[in-house]
UniProtKB/TrEMBL annotation:
This is BTB domain-containing protein. Pfam families: adh_short (PF00106), BTB (PF00651). It comes from Aquatica leii. Gene3D superfamilies: NAD(P)-binding Rossmann-like Domain, Potassium Channel Kv1.1, Chain A. InterPro entries: BTB/POZ_dom, NAD(P)-bd_dom_sf, Sc_DH/Rdtase_CS, SDR_fam, SKP1/BTB/POZ_sf. PANTHER family: 15-HYDROXYPROSTAGLANDIN DEHYDROGENASE [NAD(+)] (PTHR44229), ALCOHOL DEHYDROGENASE-RELATED (PTHR44229:SF8). The keyword Oxidoreductase applies. SMART domains: BTB. One of its GO terms (cellular component) is cytoplasm.
Length: 428
């Protein structure tokens, strides 16, 4: 395992190739001609020679720098320094950054030498700073460090997520499984919950039920069409206004009706994508009360196995699994500290499943299902919610869980295509 104090160098195939060429700086003496990077410039910085810019950190520490060097590794500083000259604006020679000097020193080390000191206790802050100031090379180094470390430590589940005192937003939360998620989370000590739903009547009933069971002030209802980004974002804003933070998002809203497949795609896929982006890039990322936030995406067993009766609904649930696995990487966790996973409920006794055979594109699609319909075992929403809440505490980043036939949840693992190729070759 890499020592926490080791210096990680950018791999050759990722390091930007810097050819020897003339770099013109506002104060760069022309008689020096070409210079070799990074050796000469690194010496110049250490001795404060030929510096033409200043970085002011949030703790007041200042670094004298060469603007052309920092601009070479950062689009942000290139825009701040170089573009101001090209555009004919007053020359920018100073930049204030909202990070500590200890963290920014690593960015400067990378700019001048191609390497920096990444440790377990600074990787999160360094990654955020590199992302904020568009230093791609440092982002790559931090992600490699996290991936290497994750071979030995499960970073996202080093400690069980504690629900007590947290705040949740649940789409489709006014009835069915969505409402049961809210009840079970509150049973586990949740501070507050926002029920985001299109149905105001169900929302009022749900608030009354929660108030009777858990007291006033534990829940709010916000009318939301999840295909409308403004309405969705308003739900996040009202959650933070009411409860001061937000830690959990359950993307539960969905419909099952292939007859209106365009709406089905919008709600099931677009709604999940919109909620996840709002949470992971902004609201949970910035307003979580602890070190970690959680997003639960609701897929289905129809996202695991083909569903000939409802091929479009099936496609939307497959999409959610691919989306969750992609955002469920350690790289995304390192950037946001938001853990993402999905659950795939089987047949559940909810209004969604009522007469679902008639919601198929054609009656002919239902023929095969009618032959086995009597074998289906329906689960209760409360059981799904109980398992889901336990998974919120423990499910690894990017994992997919099947909850079916009244049995304990099990993980639906991904098999990389290269492994499938090897298995196929071996079987032959």
């Amino acid at each position: 395992m890499r020592s926490s104090s080791s210096v990680i160098k950018l791999p050759k195939n990722l390091r930007k190739k810097i050819k020897e060429k003339e770099r013109k700086c506002v104060c760069f003496p022309q008689h020096l001609g070409t210079v070799e990077i990074p050796m000469v410039w690194s010496e110049f910085r250490l001795n404060s020679q030929l510096c033409d810019g200043v970085i002011v950190c949030e703790d007041g520490v200042q670094f004298r720098i060469h603007r052309v060097i920092l601009s070479a590794v950062s689009a942000y500083f290139k825009a701040h320094f170089t573009n101001s000259l090209n555009g004919g604006f007053p020359e920018n020679t100073e930049a204030k950054v909202s990070v500590s000097s200890d963290i920014f020193k690593n960015i400067l080390d990378f700019a001048y030498t191609g390497c920096c000191n990444i440790e377990a206790n600074n990787v999160e802050h360094l990654l955020k700073a590199a992302d904020q100031y568009d230093v791609l090379g440092v982002i790559q180094l931090c992600c490699r460090y996290v991936l290497d470390l994750s071979q030995f430590v499960d970073l996202s589940c080093a400690n069980m997520f504690e629900i007590k005192g947290k705040v949740a937003l649940i789409t489709g939360g006014a009835s069915g499984i969505g409402f049961q998620y809210a009840v079970e989370l509150l049973n586990n000590g949740l501070k507050g919950v926002t029920l985001a739903d299109i149905n105001e009547e169900f929302g009022e009933i749900a608030l009354q039920d929660i108030s009777q069971k858990f007291g006033d002030g534990k829940a709010i209802f916000v009318k939301v069409d999840v295909t409308n980004q403004k309405q969705f974002e308003d739900a996040f804003k009202k959650t933070v206004e009411k409860f001061e933070n937000i830690d959990i998002l359950i993307n539960n809203a969905g419909i099952l009706d292939d007859r209106i497949w365009e709406t089905e795609i919008d709600i099931n896929i677009k709604g999940t994508v919109t909620g996840t982006l709002l949470a992971i890039q902004n609201y949970i990322h910035k307003h979580k009360s602890g070190p970690e936030g959680v997003i639960v995406n609701i897929s289905s067993v129809a996202g695991v196995d083909p569903a000939p009766i409802l091929p479009i609904y099936c496609a939307t649930k497959y999409a959610i699994i691919g989306f969750t696995r992609s955002f469920g990487t350690e790289m995304h966790y390192a950037l946001s500290n938001v853990r993402v996973f999905a659950i795939c409920p089987g047949f559940t006794d909810t209004p969604l499943m009522t007469n679902f055979e008639v919601k198929s594109l054609k009656p002919e699609y239902t023929t095969s299902f009618k032959k086995v319909k009597h074998l289906v075992v329906y689960q209760q929403p409360a059981d799904i919610a109980r398992h889901a809440v336990e998974l919120i505490k423990t499910a690894p980043q990017g994992s997919i869980w099947v909850i079916d036939s009244k049995e304990p949840p099990y993980e639906y693992s991904h098999i990389p295509r290269q492994k499938v190729k090897e298995l196929t070759a071996n079987s032959n």
